[in-house]
């Protein structure tokens, strides 16, 4: 720390000396070329061709390398597209400017260079500087150039530093942007309308999760950051927008982990006159399209797992999966006593008011979910834990719902929507009863949504897909913090 403070003081002195001599930074330097474009454009041009053409360029960026050699020096500038080397000669840029560069400028400073393209004797494409200007002087030194930023804590807390030093990080977030854009293109091509729904809700709903609470002073009322946009999107389907989607933030007041950040990005979409099977087919196609168009391959390596996304995922009901991975029989999976005993053996809490459906869900999450490594759809979720999903016609104890698991993690949750206002009101009441017993994640009773259903929701299917987890999968990232630019961190 003392060394860093010393360097800070040295750079402050340099900055003061610069400002005393120059008065201010240049603010009107007009860059006309990017490093990546220059390398691409002149990749095949040899030294003689570049000398003959004398191509003028203006580049700007951050100094990442610096080699001072008496009356001539090399610097490497980094911009958003890559890096380009620049050659600075004292007799070309001017003795005064060169001396300032030599004594007052540092690695990390932001610099503009005007010159012509050349190739060095070693064959490196270079800008032969005719003019150099300091655009901003940095006070803090960059990390050691050969190792970059490797400390995970620093990478998450100081993402700007991570982005400066690590091309892999910059590439990851470019890929994230491409994934989101391709999702938008896909749904637009299918005739979906992109919409925005409220972030602040008077009643939190759309998912069983604990909300963040806030307060509106002027209206003198409590509000909640949304846990999901579902109920508003389905109101739009009632209103006649038959295909809608939204890519936006949700907020859930839960713990931090490699899979969870309290603020996260979700894709939610709803299609009238469709059911949950249609959405499973759509999800299969969407994942294959993303792999092909963004990554160029449908076979992924994720944390040691080889995943072929061109093949449809396996399908199992929740009961079938519990039987397969726990050894319980179908009779035991339908027995509240046997399920409670299984949870007790696992040293997990069992609440006396839990029904068979909730007990099944707890066993599934404890013993099955993490073992679903290859892409797998789990279907027929209990109605008890699916308060917004349509009951199955043949078995009203389960719903027409699915979740997609890959690498032991849930990626998508979709179902045929419950459009019976009477049934919905009853399920809201059951959730409200759970909330009164202390269940912070249970839903509130949303009368306005029931009113909307009374105007008629056509047969509809809807799905939520976690963008952050999807980016993790497609970039082989082990933690959600790797794919969120500014993850929530405990204060230092």
Q: Would you write up a description of this structure?
A:
The chain has 492 residues and is an alpha+beta fold. It has two domains: 2-142, Nucleic acid-binding proteins (OB fold (Dihydrolipoamide Acetyltransferase, E2P), Beta Barrel); 165-313 and 374-482, BirA Bifunctional Protein, domain 2 (2-Layer Sandwich), CATH 3.30.930.10. It is built from 17 helices and 18 strands. It has helices spanning 2-22, 35-41, 47-53, 90-93, 95-104, 152-157, 159-165, 167-189, 230-238, 276-295, 318-326, 330-333, 336-345, 356-367, 421-436, 447-454, 467-475; strands spanning 56-69, 72-79, 82-89, 110-119, 125-136, 193-194, 200-201, 213-216, 221-225, 243-251, 263-272, 299-302, 305-308, 314-317, 376-379, 401-406, 409-416, 460-466. It has an eight-stranded mixed beta sheet with strand order 6-10-11-18-17-16-15-14, with helices on both faces. The chain has a five-stranded mixed barrel with strand order 1-2-3-5-4. Strands 7-9-8 form a three-stranded antiparallel beta sheet, with no helix packed on it. α8 (167-189) crosses α10, α11 crosses α14 (356-367) and α15 (421-436) runs antiparallel to α16 (447-454). It is elongated and about 90 Å long. The two termini are 16 Å apart.
């Amino acid at each position: 720390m003392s060394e860093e403070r010393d360097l800070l003081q040295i750079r402050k002195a340099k900055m003061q000396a610069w400002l005393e001599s120059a008065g201010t930074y240049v603010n009107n330097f007009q860059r006309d070329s990017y490093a990546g474009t220059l390398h691409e454009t002149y990749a095949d041009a040899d030294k003689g061709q570049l000398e003959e053409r004398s191509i003028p360029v203006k580049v700007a960026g951050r100094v990442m390398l610096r080699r001072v050699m008496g009356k001539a020096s090399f610097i490497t500038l980094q911009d958003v597209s890559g890096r380009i080397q620049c050659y600075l000669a004292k007799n070309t840029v001017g003795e005064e400017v060169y001396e300032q560069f030599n004594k007052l400028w540092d690695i990390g400073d932001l610099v503009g260079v005007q010159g012509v393209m050349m190739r060095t004797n070693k064959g490196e494409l270079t800008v032969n500087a005719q003019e150099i200007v300091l655009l901003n002087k940095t006070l803090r030194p960059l990390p050691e150039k050969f190792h970059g930023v490797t400390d995970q804590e620093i990478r998450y807390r100081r993402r700007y530093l991570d982005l400066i030093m690590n091309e892999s990080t910059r590439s990851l977030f470019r890929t994230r942007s491409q994934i989101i854009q391709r999702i938008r293109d896909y749904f637009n091509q299918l005739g979906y309308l992109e919409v925005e729904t409220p972030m602040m809700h008077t009643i939190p709903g759309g998912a069983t999760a604990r909300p963040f609470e806030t307060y509106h002073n002027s209206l003198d009322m409590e509000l909640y950051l949304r846990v999901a946009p579902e109920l508003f999107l389905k109101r739009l389907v009632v209103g006649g927008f038959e295909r809608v989607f939204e890519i936006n933030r949700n907020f859930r007041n839960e713990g931090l982990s490699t899979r969870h950040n309290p603020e996260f990005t979700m894709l939610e979409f709803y299609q009238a006159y469709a059911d949950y099977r249609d959405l499973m087919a759509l999800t299969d196609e969407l994942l294959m399209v993303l792999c092909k168009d963004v990554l160029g391959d449908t076979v992924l390596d994720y944390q040691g797992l080889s995943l072929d996304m061109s093949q449809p995922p396996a399908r199992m009901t929740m009961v079938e999966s519990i039987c397969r991975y726990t050894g319980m029989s179908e009779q035991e999976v339908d027995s509240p006593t046997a399920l409670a005993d299984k949870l007790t053996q696992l040293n997990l809490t069992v609440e006396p008011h839990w029904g068979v459906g909730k007990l099944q869900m707890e066993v599934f999450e404890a013993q099955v979910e993490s073992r679903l490594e290859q892409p797998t759809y789990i279907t027929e979720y209990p109605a008890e834990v699916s308060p917004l999903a349509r009951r199955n016609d043949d078995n009203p104890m389960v719903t027409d719902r699915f979740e997609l698991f890959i690498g032991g993690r849930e990626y998508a949750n979709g179902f045929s929507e419950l459009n019976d206002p009477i049934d919905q009101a009853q399920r809201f009441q059951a959730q409200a009863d759970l909330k009164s017993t202390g269940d912070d994640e249970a839903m509130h009773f949303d009368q306005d949504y029931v009113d909307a259903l009374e105007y008629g929701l056509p047969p509809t299917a809807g799905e939520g897909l976690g963008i952050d987890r999807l980016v993790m999968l497609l970039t082989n990232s082990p933690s959600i913090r790797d794919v969120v630019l500014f993850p929530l961190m405990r204060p230092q």
